Amino acid sequence: MGWRLTLRPYLLIVPALLLTCGILYPFGLGLYYTLFDFSASKPQPDMVRFENYRAVFTQEAFWNSAWVTVLYAVGAALTETVLGVAVALLLYRSSLLGRVLEKILILPLMIAPVIAAIIWKLMLQPSVGVVNHLLKPFGLGGVQWTDTPTGALLSSIAVDVWVYTPFVAILALAGLRSLPTSPFEAAAVDGAGWWYTFRRLTLPMLWPYVLVAVIFRFMDSLKVFDIIYALTEGGPGDSTVVLQIRAYLEAIRFQRYSFGISYTIVLWAVVYLAAMVLVKHLGKIQRKAAEVTT
Amino acid sequence: MKKRLVGWLCDAALVLYFVFALFPIAWMVILSLKPADQLFSTYFSFSPTLDGYRTVLGDSEGIPFVRFFVNSLVVSVGAVVLSLVVGLPAAYASARWRFKGSENLMFTLLSFRFAPELTVIIPLFVLYQKLGLFDTYVGMVWVLQLVTLPLIVWIMRSYFADLTPELEQAALLDGYTRKQAFFRVALPLVKPGIAAVSLLAFIFAWNNFVFPLILTSNEAQTVTVGALSFLGGDRPKYNLTAAAALISVVPPLLLALTIQRYLVRGLSFGAVKS
């Protein structure tokens, strides 16, 4: 009986693990490939050890991509957090209007990001897009949205914000609904102002929920691919070549397989480290929030 | 008086956000209904036509969109079913037993949620070419596990953890076997969760873009990649692109509305319950 009890969970988990190994195997294979100079022009590759990684880190294009990726991820995650929390607070406040609008909040979130990017691409066309058409009365008819480096980066962040702000808002709204009411009643009795209540009560208690959203959004934005691919393809020039796009160009378009994989391995390592730091932080924040609540 | 004004301003801000959120969808509807010759002319006045939809659904541009749609259905359902079969026992085991390495195993599964897709795609691309899995349903279902399995395991784990173990223990005392206790007691109780998470996993699989982009070319291509092909060519066909985009978002939108109640838990992988 004893051994059966301890063995059972493993048996139940084995099928999922096997399937997972089906994915881990190519991952390991990719890691192995990066030690060779495997490319379309060299089907019989030589072992080059860590040469690919050295090449990645000494390539200016890598540092450019890393910088663009960080700008994109920080810009998108930050905007979505602020906007999402604001939308959640407004929805929570406004009972009748809020209840109606809440139902449709998820719509952009359920549209595939690549489709969202296509939609925005059509709307942002400089001469025939609807955005410039609507801006014309304000004397801003000819903005080259995705054709200037800054414009392209801001436009892709805007698409990300359009798709994912509801995600932050939904989590924040769930958080708001789960907050205990007594601290707020006490604050109201003490005559505390709106700002004081928000800063000292709402925000600290809401923070664990917001942080979950921030972690998800930041990690996801670091590995953005579909939005950029459909909206700008990394251009103009190198202005929106995030790391996954660079890896795609190297590995698939230029068929330098192992060099391209090296890029994604570096990105994977960064995302992993970021995840560890953030998850650790999340635990700390959740404990702190529990103290405020009690 | 001042309070009332603030209230109005707040509502106005809220409405403004929703205009931003909904206008692109409304605009796609308008664009998809425009006749081809009025695409670039006057903006809000036009004679609506379903020609765009007819062209997209009728293969007339050489893009078999209906087949892409069916492909999306097949591979998304396939990935969800396979993930349920292997994911439910794993979720149950990790919720019911603390065993050596359980947390690490779970974290590994979760980490796939954040792994850059291209890390595995490129080796898979090479591997699939060799194995003949490139551009096949099996190949796509296999790789979409990366999207659906972690979701199903993590969310179902939180559902199983919410059931008190006493229920199954009572069943065991009544002479049920472990297996019967799982199938007749635990599983029925989390059925709403299973339904919700299946639909959400389906949406995620349906919306995926990178995997079909690189691992399919024609036979198993899905709508997310297919919709992009209407943008190609010398003269982009805006009405067709809009129609294709709208057709491709119908299934996820409908499913999302039906499982709205469960979305918070699903989207946050059970980290936030509601």
Helical content band of chain A: over 70%
* Gyration radius over CA of chain A: 24 Å
Largest sheet of chain B at a glance?
A: none
Question: Residue ranges of chain A: pLDDT <50 for 5 or more in a row?
Answer: none
Characterize the biggest β-sheet of chain A: none
Based on DSSP secondary structure assignment, what is the total number of beta strands of chain B? 0
Low confidence ranges of chain B: none
The level 1 CATH classification of chain A is Mainly Alpha
* Average of pLDDT of chain A: 86
What's the end-to-end separation of chain A, in Å?
44 Å
Give the strand tally of chain A.
0
Proportion of beta-strand residues of chain A: under 5%
Label the structural class of chain A: mainly alpha
Organism (chain A): Streptomyces luteogriseus
Keywords (chain A): Cell membrane, Membrane, Sugar transport, Transmembrane, Transmembrane helix, Transport
Membrane topology (chain A): Multi-pass membrane protein
Protein name (chain A): Multiple sugar transport system permease protein
Summarize the structure in words.
- The complex is a heterodimer of chains A (294) and B (274).
- Chain A has one domain (29-109, 159-293): MetI-like (MetI-like fold), CATH 1.10.3720.
- Chain A contains 13 helices and no strands.
- Chain A has helices spanning 2-33, 51-58, 60-93, 95-104, 107-110, 113-124, 130-135, 149-178, 182-189, 194-222, 226-231, 243-253, 257-293.
- In chain A, helix 3 packs across helix 4 and helix 10 runs antiparallel to helix 13 (257-293).
- The radius of gyration of chain A is 24 Å and the shape is globular.
- The two termini of chain A are 44 Å apart.
- Chain B has a domain at 65-227: MetI-like (MetI-like fold, Orthogonal Bundle), CATH 1.10.3720.10.
- Chain B is built from 13 helices and no strands.
- In chain B, helix 7 (165-173) crosses helix 8.
- The mean pLDDT of chain B is 87.
- At the A-B interface, helix 1, helix 3, helix 4, helix 5 and helix 6 of A face helix 1, helix 3, helix 4, helix 5 and helix 6 of B.
- Chain A: Residues 66-278 form the ABC transmembrane type-1 domain.
- Chain A: It is found in: Cell membrane.
- Chain A: InterPro entries: MetI-like, MetI-like_sf.
